[in-house]
């Protein structure tokens, strides 16, 4: 993966990427590996496409399905309610806020 997700998390950069039908705009909080061995990103989606019709909220994205990841040039400062730095969706955390 060319884009450095950990750098975006460290710098609290809002990122965007194509995922499962549309562009997602997210605040990345935690990146790691799930129990199936997949790299995953826990992020708070703030805009863009949502297959559920709810484009706002916590999501877990499979990094292999994230296409054209880029920074939006925006930053985030707030820790969203419900954030868990010891994310239970991951067996190994690589980086987090």
What distinguishing features does this structure have?
SH3 type barrels; 97 residues; 1 helix; globular; six-stranded antiparallel sheet; mainly beta; 51% strand; WYL domain-containing protein
Structure description:
This protein is mainly beta and 97 residues long. The protein has a single domain, classed as SH3 type barrels (Roll). 6% of the residues lie in helices and 51% in strands. The chain contains one helix and six strands, in the order H-E-E-E-E-E-E. It has one helix spanning 5-10, and strands at 13-19, 22-33, 39-48, 57-62, 67-75, 92-96. Strands 1, 2, 3, 4, 5 and 6 form a six-stranded antiparallel sheet that branches. The radius of gyration is 12 Å and the shape is globular.
CATH class: Mainly Beta
Low-confidence stretches: none
Shape: globular
Taking Cα atoms only, what radius of gyration do you get, to the nearest Å?
12 Å
Q: Briefly note the structural class of the backbone.
A: mainly beta
Mean pLDDT: 95
What characterizes the major β-sheet? Answer: 6 strands, antiparallel
Percentage of β-strand residues: over 45%
CATH topology: SH3 type barrels
Count, helices: 1
Order of helices and strands: HEEEEEE
Q: Span from first to last CA?
A: 20 Å
């Amino acid at each position: 993966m060319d884009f450095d997700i950990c750098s975006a998390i460290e710098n609290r950069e809002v990122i965007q990427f194509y995922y499962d039908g549309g562009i997602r705009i997210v605040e990345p909080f935690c990146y790691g590996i799930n129990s199936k061995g997949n790299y995953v990103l826990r992020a708070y989606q703030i805009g863009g496409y949502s297959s559920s019709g709810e484009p706002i909220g916590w999501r877990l994205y499979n990094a292999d399905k994230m296409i054209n990841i880029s920074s939006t040039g925006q930053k985030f400062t707030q820790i969203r309610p419900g954030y868990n730095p010891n994310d239970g969706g991951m067996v190994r955390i690589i980086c987090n806020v």
